[in-house]
Amino acid sequence: QVQLVESGGGLVQPGGSLRLSCAASGIRFSIYSMAWYRQAPGKQRELVAIIGSGGSTNYADSVKGRFTISRDNAKNTVYLQMNSLKSEDTAVYYCNARLHDSYWGQGTQVTVSS
User: Fold this and answer.
1) Stretch 9-15: mean pLDDT, rounded?
2) Do the Cβ atoms of 112 and 12 come closer than 8 Å?
C-alpha cells in the first residue's frame, strides 16, 4: 500500500519560513519523480516544484528563488523549504509521486498571515 504523508505546515507571518516534509512508503522511492503541488481556495491545483530521480529540479515562476525542493532517498522523504513566504502562498500543499503511476498525499495547510 502506497502512502505519502506530508508534515510541516502551519501558520507563519509574511517573510517567514517553513519546511514541508513528505515521507513515502510502499514505492521504490528513488526511481520516482517527486513533486509539490498546492491548491488555494477557489483555485486549481498548481505545480510548485518537482525533483526528478536524478535530482534535477524545476519550479513555478512564482516561487523561484524562494522555495527549494530536495530529496533524501535514504529516508524516502522529499522536502520543500519555503522562504520569504507571502500571503499568496497560502494553500493546501500536496506531495505527489509519479512514474508510470501517480500517488498523492492528503495535504498540509500552509497559512501566511500577520
Assistant:
1) 98
2) yes
